[in-house]
Amino acid sequence: MQLIPETAARFGVQDICDPAQNIEGGMKYLRFLLDEFQNPLLVAAAYNSGEGRIYEYGGVPPFQETVGYVAKVVNFQLGLPMPTGKRKANGIVRDMAEKNTSDAGVIAVEKTGKFVGG
What pTM, to 2 d.p., does this model score? Predict the structure, then answer.
């Protein structure tokens, strides 16, 4: 798992390169985040950007990396593909922005500059 040194120390990981310690520390951190936020979207966002950012923005922070990460986690959990940005239909390449992805149940990554959830 990816743990920054401060988080690794906080959850008892002495050797971040030791797989057993790393996974155990990472699972403790995810358990902490789930207990703290009680919302899997916020847990994914906090794991990616830090729990302080969730409080700062009152939800998923409006960072492209974090919003994209949350979308990937949720889509993976639901067994849905991530949008690729372009799609070929009947020989025509269309931009995903033209397609209403909510019909497919896919959470598309959009650059709105606003936070999600909260």
Answer: 0.68
Mean pLDDT of 101-118: 50
CATH topology of domain 5-104: Lysozyme (1.10.530)
Quote the CA–CA distance of 47 and 22 in Å, as a whole number.
Answer: 14
Q: In 3D, which of 58, 22, 17 has the Cα closest to residue 46?
A: 58
Please list, residue by residue across 69-104, b when 16 or more beta carbons sit within 10 angstroms of its beta carbon and e when fewer do: bbbebebeeeeeeebeeeeeeeeeeeebeeeeeeee
Contact 5, 17 (CB under 8 A): no
Q: Are 85 and 92 in contact (CB under 8 A)?
A: no
Domain ranges of the chain: 5-104
Can you tell me the distance from the alpha carbon of 7 to that of 66, in angstroms, rounded to the nearest whole number? 18
